[in-house]
Amino acid sequence: MNDPLVFLLAVHNHQPVGNFVSVFERAFEDCYRPFLRELRKHPDIKFAAHYSGPLLEYMRDKEGECWEGLKEMVARGQVELLGGGFYEPILSVIPEEDRLGQLGLMSRFLEANFETRPRGIWLTERVWEPSLPRTLAQAGIEYTLLDEEHFHYAGVRDIHSYYITEDQGYPLKLFPIDKKLRYLIPFHAAADIETYLREIEAKNGLAILGDDGEKFGLWPGTKAWVYGEGWLVRFLDFLKEKNIRTCTYAEILETRPPAGRVYLPPASYEEMMEWVLEPRAAAVFKELKTANPPEARRYLRGGFFREFFLKYPESNLLNKRMILVSRQVNRTSDEEAKRELYKGQCNDATWHGVFGGIYFPHLREAAYEHLLKAERMIPAESGWRNLDYDQDGRDEMLFRNSTFGLIVKPAFGGSLVEIDHYPSFRNLSDVLSRRQESYHTPQRPGPEQGKSIHELVRELPPGSERLFRYDRSPRFCALDHFLPPDQGVGQRSREGRQGRRDFPAGPLEENPIQGFPSKSPPPDLSAEKFENGDYEEWSDFADRPYAHETQGTILRMGREGRVGIGPESLLVRVQKEIEVEDRDLILRYRIKNLGDRPARLCFASEWNFYQRPEEIALDPGRIRLCGGRLRFEIFPRQDLWSFPLRTLSQSEKGYDIIHQGFCLLPSWNFTLGGKEEFVIRILLGDLDAASPS
User: Fold this and answer.
1) Mutual orientation of helices 313-329 and 361-376 as an angle, nearest 10°?
2) What does the alpha-carbon distance between residue 413 and residue 430 come to, in Å, rounded to a whole number?
């Protein structure tokens, strides 16, 4: 006769660094608090719980009932607390010193506040790489939970036991998370769940479930189902009535040996490995899964988490910026700087799936804010230096003073990849480019009842086709364009409104910035084509390499190329200088006709700023950013056109139309005689005389 079935439950609760306070409040109101209240009434039902550092700090400061209740449940042995990286990093993509630092910070926090040191961890997004056992063992960790797919990829069939692996002789126990249980709980009635549990019991196996705690009240529709309709109460009663034993993972380690040794390939949960794929690859992968039997899934793995650094260049830039700051911080013993660094390593802003992730500007903004705060605490010499910080085999030029930090990419049109403003701890150029996603293809929705969040299909919102505009390249600053002459953008919007400085709130309404005087005719379709990414480029300056050299605080870059189409094209030299003077960033262009015959040209300099609508405005002839904190000035003034950058992204509640920033495109129509040049000056200046030094 088999022993009573053992049900191992682990709930993972997390809110990102920088998330809105209102989200924290609603999460506790709808999910975390009612869950703990109900489980507190059942001291004989044991489970494991993981709370990320941001949630633990918020709970300690704002949610006394949950904090004290959790302490009580831990003290009586009902709850086993899982550790992890304190600020929820993807451990495998941060430096080793920071892995150990984040794990140690969490272990010390739990010991100081709950008098327990974690034996196991919740591995963020279950992103596994084979080198992790050594890191975790050195941090005093004995086990973690991974999805069943990890084990299938290694040829393991039995997912109702736990296993042991190692790296360089450092051991780690691994518990497979049952995918079917993930999709059953809490979306199905207890009777449906019992049928599957009895199948596990017949094999004398462990029923292992580890999943997001937010599915118990915060995911769409779950609050009404789990609490309003009493699912959780009925499920807890069901566990008791059916003699299903619950225990902690640590207790299993003491009473059962591992089923064997395994070596797992790099992986995450199945959905994550599909989200990382480009749309075309995702469609092929879906066809392969449909066409092949279940036993083939060992060889059908989807993508790899690090491919998000390829799919979203902005994710790679954030990750490599973090590594750059980490190297600076870890050369010191500044604990405050390390904590800021750790906050900047929170994973949510680096990937995208059902949840907003990298599409949420406030999460990217928070990551950069903490990285810049950490960097500001570390002394550095002012001036230019070269470094391949983004690891593409070509050096970038980096500059830092008390006001600005710059990263310039000579190999990509001499563009400004990053403009950091230290007084406000903002990356002003943190703009997500518009790109095609798999879910931009219309799908027919089905019934939602009884489905996990990963199974839901929803209709695209009305008007969404206007957001299917995809960018040719990342949204950097100081991108150089030559457009057809006398077809420049002009000062008016497509609707013909002039002089408008406010920003309407409608989610799909266009928000032009206007006000610059112009002698050019009203724009034709070229302006709209530029916004749509469907414009005609008359040169290849925008993304080709520029030669570069430095002289003091000045970075000089230059390139020669042909402008125009066919035999009438003209040889032109573009020289651009970037200089930082205290609180002013100055960019100077010199555009020279290298031929002997005169030519009519239209040159445009593209700037993309992460600015919320209420932060950007025009004074006469001057753009103000950051609520008036910064000025953006153009000399000579001629034409300016602008448009908001909005994306349509998938989220747990359906689809989000998200404002990512603004594109500002000053342009100049001019005639150059043989060997003549045209000079442009663009200034970005800090207007606050009280800026800290």
Assistant:
1) 20
2) 18
Q: Is 164 helix (H, G, I), strand (E, B) or coil?
A: strand
383-387: strand order across its sheet: 383-387, 396-400, 404-409, 415-421, 426-427
Confidence label for 621 from pLDDT (cuts 50, 70 and 90)? low
**3 has catalytic annotation:** no
Report residue 530's pLDDT band, with 50, 70 and 90 as the boundaries.
confident
Q: Which long-range contacts (CB under 8 A, 24 or more apart) does 276-280 make?
A: 276/302, 276/303, 276/304, 276/305, 276/307, 276/308, 276/311, 276/351, 277/302, 277/303, 277/307, 277/311, 277/438, 278/311, 279/436, 279/437, 279/438, 279/440, 279/441
Give me the residue label for tokens 């928000």: 511
Q: Which residue has the higher pLDDT, 517 or 588?
A: 588
Which one, of 256, 268, 264, 302, lies nearest residue 156 by Cα?
264
Q: How far apart are CA 656 and CA 674, in angstroms?
A: 52
Of all residues in the chain, the percent with pLDDT exceeding 70 is 90
Q: How confident is the model at residue 683 (pLDDT cuts 50, 70, 90)?
A: very high
Give the bridge partners for 632, in sequence order: 623, 684
Among 670, 533, 667, residue whose Cα is nearest residue 598: 670
Distance CA 71, CA 48 (A): 13
Q: CATH assignment of 6-267?
A: 3.20.110.20
Q: Angle at which helices 190-202 and 231-241 pack, to 10 degrees?
A: 30
List all residues 6 or more positions away from 499 whose beta carbon is below 8 Å from its beta carbon. Answer: 514, 515
Quick one: tokens of 11?
Answer: 């709930």
For the ranges 7-16, 373-382, 448-457, which has the lowest average pLDDT? 448-457
In the chain, where are the structural domains located?
6-267, 466-686
CA distance 546 to 561: 11
User: Residue 514 has what pLDDT?
Assistant: 33
pLDDT number for residue 443: 63
Structure tokens at 665: 């495109």
Confidence band (pLDDT; 50, 70, 90) for 652? confident
- Indicate if 466-686 has the same CATH topology as 6-267: no
Residue 212 known to be catalytic: yes
Whether residue 301 has pLDDT greater than 80 = yes
Per-position DSSP letters for 343-410, written without gaps between them: HTT-GGGG--SSS-GGG-HHHHHHHHHHHHHHHHTS----EEEEE-TT-SSS-EEEEE-SSEEEEEET
Categorize the per-residue pLDDT at 537 as very low, low, confident or very high, splitting at 50, 70 and 90. confident
pLDDT attached to residue 440: 87
pLDDT of residue 427: 98
* Class of domain 466-686 (CATH, top level): mainly beta
Options 88, 125, 340, 639, the catalytic residue? 125
Active-site residue, from 166, 212, 334, 543: 212
Contact 399, 580 (CB under 8 A): yes
